[in-house]
């Protein structure tokens, strides 16, 4: 049942480090040439393709003669800077051979968290697609440290799928798809052909990375599918070594694991809120406020017992239950200092407490998304 892919006009294809660098042996020119050929085939039948490629660190390590992945952030960043040159060079020549232009786009988490930069990135990518160019995206590893990284490119792939409103995210890796357990560890593991993106049972089946070259493993792919489904994109996890994998998927053939997006997509603005990986603060709600949010109402200051963090009006914050489960997130109308003063107060008292009132709600329901 891979029919949804046959209708997908815009695809994000993600290729992992182990695959791109042939397990750290150096850029796999044959494999890269093969994906370029397949992507050219998709372009020829009118599909838009954005490629998210890992491999900068693994390629840099190989070029620098390092056999072990360094643990120091600056060494990793240096390796990424060296390796990204290799990636750009090889992709450029591989696509030129098929008459296609490429564009390098390096993104950070901050680019996508800032609404203006997010919209800029979206316009640039859609302009490139309109020009028939294949954008090749990676994380800008040289300028980000661990705390602010996407880290694995599965997450980045899902965010890009949401950013360009793709119909499908295709994650190519070194296994045939998602198995019931890590096939490297469990010989009885079987391939799952079709499932529902976001099914919590998948998270217990998926393990970590298979080699020192990959970062995320299967768990980040399963979570990426859940994330991509929020904008309505289906996900396929398949082997990048499977013959003609991309054209076959585009024809609707069943290859690998299909994770179907079967929930109502969020609006673009709510999608952007949901995709924030780092939040500016946390609002602790009482049980009444939790119920109000579940019935689709705005968050009023009266239902907030405590505030964590230092944030400005307009920041994206988490809303947690008394048990500290994040149930929603949204754009706050008051800074953390103001919020601490009006917490537990009725909205009609805001002006008396602060001397002014922005809005009666702490977070308006239009700026709020429920996560469960
Ligand atoms: N349930 C599972 N099904 C398939 N692979 C799994 C599973 N759990 C863990 N893995 C591991 O995930 C690895 C792929 O992830 P990773 O090494 O990060 O590759 P990539 O660089 O392509 O992202 C596989 O080689 C496999 O060992
Ligand atoms: N941005 C990093 C990719 C991080 C990574 O290893 O991702 P992945 O192989 O997709 O798990 C790089 O280019 O080396």
From TrEMBL:
It is found in: Cytoplasm. Substrate binds at residues 54, 141, 153. ATP binds at residues 14, 173-174. Transmembrane segments: none annotated. The keyword Metal-binding does not apply. Residues 281-363 form the PUA domain. Its EC number is 2.7.2.11. It catalyses: L-glutamate + ATP = L-glutamyl 5-phosphate + ADP. It is an enzyme of class 2 (transferase). Keywords: Amino-acid biosynthesis, ATP-binding, Cytoplasm, Kinase, Nucleotide-binding, Proline biosynthesis, Transferase. GO terms for molecular function: glutamate 5-kinase activity. Pathway: Amino-acid biosynthesis; L-proline biosynthesis; L-glutamate 5-semialdehyde from L-glutamate: step 1/2. InterPro entries: AceGlu_kinase-like_sf, Asp/Glu/Uridylate_kinase, G5K_ProB, Glu/AcGlu_kinase, Glu_5kinase, Glu_5kinase/COase_Synthase, Glutamate_5-kinase_CS, PUA. HAMAP family: ProB. Belongs to the glutamate 5-kinase family. Catalyzes the transfer of a phosphate group to glutamate to form L-glutamate 5-phosphate. This is Glutamate 5-kinase. It comes from Rhodocyclus gracilis.
């Amino acid at each position: 049942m891979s029919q949804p892919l046959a209708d997908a006009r815009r695809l994000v294809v993600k290729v992992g480090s182990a695959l791109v660098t042939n397990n750290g042996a150096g850029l796999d020119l044959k494999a890269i040439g093969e994906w370029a050929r397949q992507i050219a085939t998709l372009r020829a039948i009118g599909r838009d393709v954005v490629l998210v490629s890992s491999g900068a660190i693994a390629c840099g390590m190989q070029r620098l003669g390092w056999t072990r992945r360094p643990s120091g952030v600056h060494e990793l960043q240096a390796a990424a800077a060296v390796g990204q040159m290799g990636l750009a060079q090889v992709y450029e020549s591989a696509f030129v051979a098929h008459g296609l232009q490429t564009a390098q786009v390096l993104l950070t988490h901050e680019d996508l968290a800032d609404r203006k930069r997010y919209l800029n990135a979206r316009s640039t990518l859609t302009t490139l697609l309109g020009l028939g160019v294949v954008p090749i995206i990676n994380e800008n590893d040289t300028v980000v440290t661990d705390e602010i990284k996407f880290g694995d490119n599965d997450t980045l792939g899902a965010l890009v799928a949401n950013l360009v409103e793709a119909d499908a995210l295709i994650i190519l890796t070194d296994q045939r798809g998602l198995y019931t357990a890590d096939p490297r560890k469990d010989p009885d593991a079987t391939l799952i052909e079709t499932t529902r993106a976001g099914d919590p049972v998948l998270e217990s089946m998926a393990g970590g990375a298979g080699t020192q070259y990959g970062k995320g493993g299967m768990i980040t792919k399963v979570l990426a599918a859940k994330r991509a489904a929020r904008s309505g994109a289906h996900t396929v996890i398949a082997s990048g070594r499977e013959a003609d994998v991309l054209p076959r998927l585009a024809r609707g053939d069943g290859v690998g694991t299909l994770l179907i997006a079967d929930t109502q997509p969020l609006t673009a603005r709510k999608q952007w809120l949901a995709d924030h990986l780092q939040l500016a603060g946390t609002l602790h709600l009482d049980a009444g406020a939790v119920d109000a949010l579940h019935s689709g109402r705005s968050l009023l200051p009266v239902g907030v017992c405590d505030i964590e963090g230092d944030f400005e009006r307009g920041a994206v914050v988490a809303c947690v239950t008394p048990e500290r489960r994040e149930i929603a997130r949204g754009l706050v109308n008051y800074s953390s200092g103001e919020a601490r003063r009006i917490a537990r107060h009725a909205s009609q008292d805001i002006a008396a407490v602060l001397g002014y009132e922005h809005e009666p709600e702490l977070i308006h329901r239009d700026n709020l998304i429920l996560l469960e």
